[in-house]
Structures are given as C-alpha cells and as structure tokens.
Amino acid sequence: MSPIEDDTSGQDPASQADTDAPTGAAASGPGAGVDPTADDPNVDGPDADSAAAIAALEAERESLKDRLLRALAEAENARKRGERDRREAQDYGATRLARDLLPVYDNLRRALDAMGAQERAAAPSVVEGIELTLREMLAAFGRHGIRPAVPEPGDPFDPQRHEAMFEAPVADHAPGSIIQVMTEGFTIHDRLLRPAQVGVASGVASVSASR
Q1: What letter would DSSP give residue 98?
Q2: How far apart are CA 149 and CA 128, in angstroms?
Q3: 3-state secondary structure at position 123
Q4: Which regions of the chain are under pLDDT 50?
Q5: Can you give the three-state secondary structure of 83-103, one letter per residue?
Q6: From 3.40.50.720, 3.40.1390.30, 2.30.22.10, 2.60.40.10, which CATH number describes the 145-211 domain?
Q7: Is the pTM of this model over 0.70?
Q8: pLDDT tens string 153-187
C-alpha cells in the first residue's frame, strides 16, 4: 500500500466522530425548539384573546338583558294602563249620557210631585205611566252603576256632596243642617255624578262660600 492511501489511518477517532456527526445535531440540546416569547407576560397569547372575547360577550349579554327587562317593564305598564282605561270606560263611559238624562228624570219627578189627590184621581193612568217611566229610568241607571244620593232633612251639609241653593233660619234645625232637598243627587260607582241641591239652615259661613 502506498503512503498516500494510509494517510487517514492515524487520525484521532474523536475528531473522526465530530466530522461524521450530522449537520443538525447541534439543535438537539435541552433548549432546542422552545419559543423564547412563550413565557413573556408582555406578549398577548391565545389565552388573552379568549379572555377578551368572553368579557365582550358578557358585556353584550348584560346589555341585552337590561334592554329585555326594560321592554318587559314597558309592556307591563302598557298592559296596566290599557286595563285601567278599559275599566274607566266601562264604569264611567255613561257619565255624559246620564248627565243629559238627569233633567228628564227631574222633570218627571216634579210632575209627579205636583199632582195632588184630585189630579191623581182624575188621571190615574197618567200617574201610573209617570211612575213606571221613573222606575224604568232608575233601573237603567242602576245597570250602569248610577244611583240616587238623597240626603235627609236634618243631615249636616257636606259641600263635597251637596249644593246649597239657599239659606234660611229654622228654629228646629241646627245651623248648617239641611232643611230641604230640592233636587236629588246621583253617584256613578264611587264618583259623584251630580250633587244634591238643598236648602241649608243659616249660621255656617262655609255655606255661602260653597254656592
């Protein structure tokens, strides 16, 4: 064998191993493949993005919940207003018509009261017709919650329910008491439809102020 062929036979085995090692072997150490920014708190990762998305969804949910509650409250208020208006219309819708019919009732009542025994005997059918008409009117009024509110002589005058038409000193009546009922009062359900027109015993200053 020639000297040239034996030139590599004396080479150090360690050097030979280093020479034969793969080019990428140096990247296989303990820190190989680790992202240096993985633990950096200043770098936004997937977890930060998820937290922000969840926070945004929760804020949107609260906003929608608030709007829903407001809409439900408004709907409930509208329902209550509608129910109240319906009851008002049902209970007091006949107020204007009743006020227009009350003078008719008053005239029939006055005609009946003006008849003496002689007139009643002369025209019993007329008297019966007036009485029947009055009863029918009161029955019709009652179906709509309209009822007479008639004070008695001697009752105290109440400016909230009575209208004083005159004052007069009366010996057997206390000052401020009713001495005569001139026109009946009426109520519709719990409201005053028309005050009773009355005469009052003099002696109360508030009576003049109410006229």
Answers
A1: H
A2: 24
A3: coil
A4: 1-10, 13-19, 21-32, 43, 204-211
A5: HHHHHHHHHHCCHHHHHHHHH
A6: 2.30.22.10
A7: no
A8: 999 999 999 999 999 998 888 999 999 999 999 99
